[in-house]
Design a protein that fits this description.
about 425 residues, 18 helices, 2 strands, about 0% strand, globular
Amino acid sequence: MEKRWHGVRPAMRQQTDSDDRPGDRQRARQVLTVLTLSRTAVAFQFQSVTPFFSSFHDTLLLSSTGFGLLLGLYMAPGALVALASPRLTRSFGSMRILSYSLLLMGLGQIVLVLAPGQTVIFLARIVAGIGGCIVYIVAVDMVADLSDAGKISSRMGIIASSWPLGNAISLVLLGGMISAAMPMAAAYAPAVLAFGMTFVVICIASNGTYARQNPAFAWRPLTTTESDNAPKSICLNDWKEALSGTMIPGITFALYNVGFIVFSSFTPNLLESQGYALSAATTIGSMPMWIFVISVPTGGVLAGRSRLRDKWIVGIGCLGGALCILLSYLFEEKIIWYILAGFLGGLPTGAMLSSTSHHRHRLFYPTLFLIFFVFLLFLPPLIGAFISMTGQIHHVLAYCIALLIVAFFLFCKETSS
């Protein structure tokens, strides 16, 4: 019998005979689609402030530091949410928590649009971020329960691609709407998307077939008398075990993601300072995110077969992406290097999310995102502060390159141990 230590679950539950039925596979794909779209709505809202940077600067005197803070505040509740999410889903059910969180995202966006000043905008951003962080974490954890061992890296690649997809759509669509003199429609668009996904999640949850296939799909929490797979209680030792095993993977994942988040968020402003129009700047700046939609799932398909292959994938992605960021500054053909940065930079995600899948603690993903959110909270404002002090916005590229290089070496350390 395979030896297991306390608090650890295998990468995925063992496949049952029912998993072979086409209907079950189709339902799993439908749920994966809904979870991916829900997470896309989070990314769309997160990046929605970027096209409004000039407007915030002119009307509210928002500096680069303030803009970095505005970005970081959305994910600021993430650390607490990561700690609370296992208990929330255990108490109320994953699908119910998912729908409530999407609803909170929409309400927070409406308050942000109607806010009279910086303070209310920051508070509204936090409120929307609470909902967004819950969706961000719970969706990935539910996808882990959907997967079987042979497909986890692929499915993680698919759910991870929702982030660049939402970012890219937000930059292009909202930037285009602002350029077309529709700023109010652009401001309310994240709320409309969040409310729409709330309706879709409720419709999916109302189908009892999903809950019978997997307790993670239940509208209400299942008890141990109803299902052997019902969520178990969580104690402090579980968190300590999870944190000790997730520290390096969490920091690696955080540095890699924050590097590209900062790159995509500050790029439109950087290109505007170089003479590009807002619409052109947002279009070029969104290119890596559009390519991530393809490269992230591709990396997931290629990953998960061996540690050596995962190292190569992460090395090509992080170091290659860093090189493309550097070349985008040195050469005039910006769009070429941005496309290449997106193609190479999206490859590591699946490998990073599945590299420890052989014996994964049941709190692995909440703990990993706890670390990620802590880094996301302080790194963008810190980088924004450095830019404000130097007055050189192109220095943001150096910070992004450094984050990607460090992420690669940490991944090598983690996979070699």
